[in-house]
Amino acid sequence: MTQSRFDKLNDSLRTSGLDAIILNPGPTLTHLTGLHFHLMERPVVLLFAKDQVPAIVLPELELQKVAALPYELQVFPYGENPSEWEGVFRKSTQTLGLDGKRIGVEPRQLRLLEFRYVRDGAPEADYPDASDVLSALRLRKDQSEIEAMRRAVKIAQDALEATIPLVKIGMTEKELSSELVTQLLRCGSEPEMPFAPIVSGGLNAANPHASPSDRKLQAGDLLVVDWGAADDGYISDLTRTFAVGEVDAEYKKIHQIVQDANAAGVMASVWKDMRSRTCAATTCSYWNLVWHSQWNPAFICQIVTAFALKIMWSSPKRAQTFYQICDEKSESLVNETEHSKRSIRQADFDRYHYFDVVVAADTLQNIWL
């Protein structure tokens, strides 16, 4: 599998005007190599040059990870003396002949630490943004990737179901968050999770990215749980809103708006012409209901997780169109709810590949404590 991904990247380099790609620890490096590294004070860099055997620069303490790989890899290890690291990086770039070449980078992932070491080894090289090349490489998922994403979702769901019986009025957000982390690990998540679980109740629940606090759960709270799991480097990202006991009637009205908008968006994504404006139809169907509700000013999230599981990209261009239309919230496009009463068939979803992050629908459930 890894060699085929190397071959795809090599083909992409031939048509992109790039001579090489450099990657530090992150999803793309793992996708290409199957290797897992974490960002630390010791730099790790994969150097992939067109029509050459890939190379990796890494600390000696990580050599065991590359000792028995099923593919060829040039390894440039360095010791614990930082003064020697620059020489090792220079050797790797000289071996691949990278100076003066166009070396693509991932701006959102590559740190200044790794970039400086590579640049010092190839000072005359150009370092353009390779995001489009790498995104296209990973856009269409193979079966093993889809299975990993589905496992990540199931792990997260199982962990939450195991956590719910432990919820008690009077326990703190931090205590509930720690229980959820424990259950995620027990259910099979990799220790390096997508993010620390967000558990927030009451007023804290109004902050989309709140950090769990010492606030105690109270009857009548809305409790937001935002969490995910990781499997083979692929992650899930789910959100659930729970009502702790009976809640105010206004909360129920708001919840119904979200549910209706969710259903409209999902149906639009499934039944609207998949070859044209699936994402646009999905977004606009959602905002058709939310935008015209009396609580419109309170909806601060442009792309809500309520229907993201059902969004299927078929090209980077359509993904960009989706974000553009969502930002504009153009009312002229908000008229795609004709199929909202049809049932959704799993077969419709199986025809398409999912995005890296699989998101499940937001729901409001009651916890009676």
Could you please describe the fold and organization of this structure?
The chain is an alpha/beta fold and 369 residues long. The chain folds into three domains: 2-139, Creatinase/prolidase N-terminal domain (Creatine Amidinohydrolase, Chain A, domain 1, 3-Layer(aba) Sandwich); 141-247, Creatinase/methionine aminopeptidase superfamily (Creatine Amidinohydrolase); 250-358, no CATH class. The chain has helices spanning 2-16, 27-33, 85-96, 112-121, 131-139, 143-163, 173-186, 249-271, 278-290, 316-328, 346-350; strands at 20-23, 45-49, 55-59, 74-78, 103-104, 198-201, 222-227, 230-231, 234-244, 358-359, 364-367. The strands form two sheets. Strands 6, 7, 8, 9, 10 and 11 form a six-stranded mixed sheet that branches. Strands 4-3-2-1-5 form a five-stranded mixed sheet, covered by helices on one side. The termini are far apart.
Secondary-structure topology with pairs:
Elements: H1 2-16, E1 20-23, H2 27-33, E2 45-49, E3 55-59, E4 74-78, H3 85-96, E5 103-104, H4 112-121, H5 131-139, H6 143-163, H7 173-186, E6 198-201, E7 222-227, E8 230-231, E9 234-244, H8 249-271, H9 278-290, H10 316-328, H11 346-350, E10 358-359, E11 364-367
Parallel strand pairs: 1-5, 3-4, 9-10, 9-11
Antiparallel strand pairs: 1-2, 2-3, 6-7, 7-9, 8-9
Helix pairs in contact: 3-4, 6-7, 8-9, 9-10
